[in-house]
Design goal:
Blueprint lengths: L13 E4 L3 H12 L7 E4 L3 H11 L2 E2 L2 H7 L2 E4 L6 H11 L5 E4 L6 H7 L6 E5 L9 E7 L5 H11 L3 E5 L5 H9 L1 H18 L4 H21 L4 H6 L7 H11 L2 H16 L2 H8 L5 E7 L2 E3 L12 E6 L2 E4 L42 H18 L3
Parallel strand pairs: 1-2, 1-4, 2-3, 4-5, 5-6, 7-8
Antiparallel strand pairs: 6-7, 9-10, 9-11, 11-12
Helix pairs in contact: 3-4, 7-12, 8-9
Length: 384
């Protein structure tokens, strides 16, 4: 039997920044779990959408600053490319001790910790789209200031829309590839099986009913049975029967290997999202702010010649935070160094990105760093 939904207890006030499909699904799940509408608030940049949600859910809309002043928990559910202006608005309004929960795919907790007041607890979440029907699979990871009770709070929050597991943040790319995108793989298989039914002469509606109900029943068997998927599959596979003949064809065409390769490739490519997000932000004016010993230094401070404790690159808000920059520290991680130089007349900006911290030979970090080694050298030769 399905476990009862948990809810965040007491008078906890929750703000959801971004009322897209995932944000709306979370609000609906919290309401269904018994959370009062007066203890929820959301932000939405499109007024018509905000009015429609308020009318339907009974939850008030607000701007980012007002939501931050009211809330004990801030859930950031905007698209990754929209994070810069949101964090810029959030930073001055955030109250000490407020828990920040990120549902932004691919963005590390270090980004939020660098952009928000020191000591802000941040929990990173990778949900998936079945949240829309209350059946999400979410993986959560703590930031450097998040304690066990913060994780427990987020677990209670997310069990209103599905199931939750804890993983180290280093495994979030793998989670994204597996369960984050997992529904798309199932939809793809179902689509192909429906097409097969049509090929065999079945009407599309009949083929869809047959396959969707079969998928639903199989999913319940997987969830409710203690048997390994191999055992469940073998129970349908009679010796010399049609099922084993079909499975042989799947193996002959490399379906299993293709799935494994696709998921592995997605996980590796996901690590490059840091680069893609930065490049998308290159159109913004970039300012370098160095924080050393808790004090901000002016942009004229030269980060290339000083060991940095933390480097934050701002692009009309925060683009990325780069953790400790001690030489040789945090093997395999990337230091991002944004530098600007105005061209003549004050128009246009040069962008240099450096990812050179202990890259493993042949690994993702090395390939990422190699792509930017030339502009890094150019920056050094230019004396920036």
């Amino acid at each position: 039997m399905r476990a009862a939904r948990a809810t965040v207890t007491g008078m906890t006030r929750i703000a959801v920044l971004g009322a897209g499909k995932i944000g709306e699904a979370l609000l609906a799940g919290l309401l269904a779990a018994g959370h009062g509408a007066d203890q929820l608030v959301f932000t939405e940049r499109h007024p018509e959408r905000a009015e429609e949600l308020t009318a339907r859910l009974g939850v008030a809309a607000a701007d980012v600053a007002a939501a931050a002043e009211l809330a004990d928990i801030i859930v950031v559910a905007v698209k990754p490319q929209d994070i810069a202006p949101v964090l810029a608005e959030l930073r001055p309004a955030l109250r000490p001790g407020t828990l920040v929960v990120s549902l932004c795919a691919g963005l590390p907790t270090a980004l939020f910790e660098g952009a928000l007041p020191a000591g802000t607890p941040v929990v990173r979440v990778m949900p998936n789209t079945p949240m829309l029907v209350g059946e999400a699979m979410s993986a959560i990871s703590p930031g450097s200031h998040a304690a066990d009770h913060h994780l427990a709070t987020v677990e209670k929050l997310l069990t209103s829309v599905g199931r939750v597991v804890r993983v180290p943040e280093s495994q979030q790319d793998a989670v994204t590839a597996l369960s984050g995108s997992g529904p798309a793989y199932f939809f793809f298989l179902v689509e192909a099986m429906i097409d097969a039914g049509i090929l065999l002469g079945l009407p599309r509606a009949v083929a869809a009913d047959l396959i969707i109900q079969s998928a639903f029943g199989a999913a319940r068997m997987l969830r409710e049975s203690d048997d390994h998927p191999v055992i469940l599959r073998e129970a349908v596979t009679s010796p010399a029967g049609t099922t084993i003949a079909a499975i042989r064809e799947l193996e002959r065409h490399g379906v299993r290997a293709a799935l494994i390769a696709a998921i592995e490739g997605f996980a590796v490519a996901g690590g490059l999202e840091i680069e893609q997000n930065f490049q998308r932000s290159a159109r913004f004016r970039v300012t370098v702010v160095v924080i050393k010993d808790g004090a901000e230094r002016p942009p004229a401070f030269n980060p290339l010649r000083v060991q940095l404790q933390r480097l934050i690159v701002l692009a009309d808000g925060i683009v990325k935070a780069a953790g400790d920059a001690r030489c040789g520290g945090l093997a395999g991680k990337l230091i991002e160094l944004g530098l600007r130089r105005r061209r003549a007349g004050g128009r246009g900006h040069g962008m240099f990105l450096c990812g050179l911290l202990s890259p493993s030979r042949g690994g993702l970090s090395e390939r990422f760093a190699g792509r930017f080694i030339a502009p890094y050298r150019h920056a050094k030769q230019a004396g920036i």
